[in-house]
Hints:
single chain; 589 residues; alpha+beta; 5-stranded mixed barrel; 18 helices; 16% strand; elongated; disordered N terminus
Amino acid sequence: MAAPKKGRSASAQSRPGRALVLILIAIAALTGGMFASGHTTPRLGIDLAGGTSITLTAKNEPGQPNAINKTNMDTAVDIMNRRVNGLGVSEAEVQTQGSDNIIVNIPKGTNSKQAREQVGTTAKLYFRPVLTTEVSGADKSATPSPSTSSSSKATDKSTDKATASPSSSSSSVTPSATATSQGRAVTDALKADSSPSAGSSASSSASTGATPTPSGSVDPATAKLQAAYTALDCSNKADRATAGDGAKPADPTVACGQNGSGQWQKYVLGPAEVAGTDIKKAGAVFDTQSAAGWKVTMDFTSGGSKKFAAITGKLAQQQPPQNQFAIVLDGEVVSDPSVAQSLSGSAEISGSFTQTEAQDLANMLKYGALPLSFKESSVTTVTAALGGEQLHAGLIAGAIGLALVILYLVIYYRGLSAIAIASLLVSAVLTYVLMALLGPAIGFALNLPAVCGAIVAIGITADSFIVFFERIRDEIREGRSLRPAVERAWPRARRTILVSDFVSFLAAAVLFIVTVGKVQGFAFTLGLTTVLDVVVVFFFTKPLMTLLARKKFFASGHPWSGLDPKRLGAKPPLRRTRRASAPVDTKEA
């Protein structure tokens, strides 16, 4: 059995070059990937790159005085985080402050403007039947004719989807209609509307929230809706902002939207038949089969698909404009397609979308609506000056610490310090390259705590070298030559290094999970450098030590090698110094 062990030992000692070649190839490949990707520097966080800090204040919804609570605030923070991360914004921070404020820190970058626009958008989506619509306010004069024009097509038999695009001026009321005729149009539309909410067989009066009244009279709810529609001027920004405020999904409401000609139209809409929560997924795609350009595709849940089929089946039997449904996002009609047949499964929103607009809308639909409405209380621009000064001070502190470590290694370990310094350089190169690559890959951003984590890692890495060197010295003190000492010391050092690094990595993982914001940057960097420490020690430090143990400078125990047997107090092997026990003179002892 002794011979095979010797063969395996010799084989293990003869292959250190393979490990060195492997890690050098990995470094070259990662560095090449870094330059090929064009990201040669790590992405910086808001404290180093600057950016925008937004304070959002929650607003109570009408009829929901207790809506602002911890559960809804936490849900809003989670959705905002997912929206911003979906845009690829690096190190955006979203956290609550007090009971009704949310602070959003967005680093300066290519998508920071989009992120600012999206974080506070409620993104409540409803599909509502159109009861009546007309060009609003000052835009009436631009209407080419009083005739009613139909909206764009809404069916695609081959894909069984609803294609939605902004209509032109679909209207059941001429531009010259008076307030009285507008009110009559609303009343007639409500009477004609026989499309109750999905799953309900209630009459039109029930679906609109109206109370049955004797013939010839108008119930208060309808009268209020008539007044709101008559007074609504969608060309006025203030009117658009308040249109439909306080309306519940089950109630009819008024709303504004722009048609394909850029004109503002006002609508009377029936109760919501399908909600945004019925959407399973959404995405932005470019339509190469038509001139529609960018569009947003939506897939419904099983329940949402049934609701969508029910409402489109009913609308297909109506006359314009009551064969249209409005896609309403945060109270504004984004499109109002007409329906020719019952549809299910999925839908599309198409129109004059740019790529950014389509991606923004898909992102908001994909991650869901906020449970609360928010207003911007303050927007502050954060400069990188203060962070840059702190980074400069931190780098000076790190350089001083690294210099002290190297000085200690040179004085105490002499020749062995060359191995330690080379290992530190390899670890530094790997850390830098990976940080640069992880920026575009997973959105990692380097902030001040992350820099601190990298500085702390210098001590962790140096500790691994010290453990290995001390194990080798222990073997030399026992009288062994260098090459056997390296191979015998490695298993003991390896166990200690793995246990130590496992504890460090576990602490970093726990810290990353239980903390938020910048502290996570420290934890992530600490965990990354701990893993790299294991890689460097196994694939660089140990193989390099094995190779140098064959060199005369180290093998002969040169005084400057750090492995001089005399300086280490080496003694002959214990088996040669054993002798019979001699009586002990108690008085002398």
